Amino acid sequence: MITAYEHWLSLPPYGWTQAEKERRYIPYLQELTAYHRNRCAAYDRALQVQHYTKADTLAQLPFLPVSLFKKFDLKSIKETEIFKTVTSSGTSGQAVSRIPLNAANARAQQTVLSRIGQHFLGSQRLPMLIIDTPAVFCRQKYL
């Protein structure tokens, strides 16, 4: 059986009006927020500080400062479920943000990024050259 989320992934990016996004996303995001709140004490505390109870609009959703992902271990999955940890670049010697993903979320993220890229670039693969410093490879434990 296909889930609502899997169905969304099959649709073209940017295909919904703002009102349609609001109608479809709010119930899903309410459930997702409750899921993370129940499984991550630091996230629950951040919501308590914001006096968050429930969002009825996208504007009421609890947004977290990126710095929290640099300072705290925000995860709602068990250590054994971590498939990949996404990190920020940590430019200028700053601390990196760490976002642990399980296998299903890693696949979904890859699918979404691919769909967004195809929307702007088309489906033809283009050659790509990545230039970086050797210091980037020193953080492999986060990759």
Kindly describe this structure:
By secondary structure, this protein is mainly α. It has two domains: 1-64, no CATH class; 69-143, no CATH class. 43% of the residues lie in helices and 6% in strands. The protein has helices at residues 4-10, 18-39, 41-49, 67-71, 103-121; strands at residues 84-87, 98-101. A two-stranded antiparallel ribbon has the order 1-2. Helix 2 (18-39) packs across helix 3 (41-49). The radius of gyration is 18 Å and the shape is globular. The chain starts with a helix and ends in a 22-residue tail after the last helix. The model has no long low-confidence stretch (mean pLDDT 84).
Estimate what percentage of residues fall within beta strands.
5-15%
Q: How many distinct folded domains?
A: 2
Quickly count the helices: 5
Which residues sit in consecutive blocks of at least 5 with pLDDT less than 50?
none
Topology as a string of helices (H) and strands (E): HHHHEEH
- Mean pLDDT rating: 84
Order of strands across the main sheet: 1-2
N- to C-terminal distance: 32 Å
Q: Kindly state the percentage of residues in helix.
A: 40-55%
Shape: globular
Report the strand count.
Answer: 2
User: Structural class, from helix and strand content?
Assistant: mainly alpha
Based on CA atoms alone, the radius of gyration comes out at 18 Å
Largest sheet: 2 strands, antiparallel
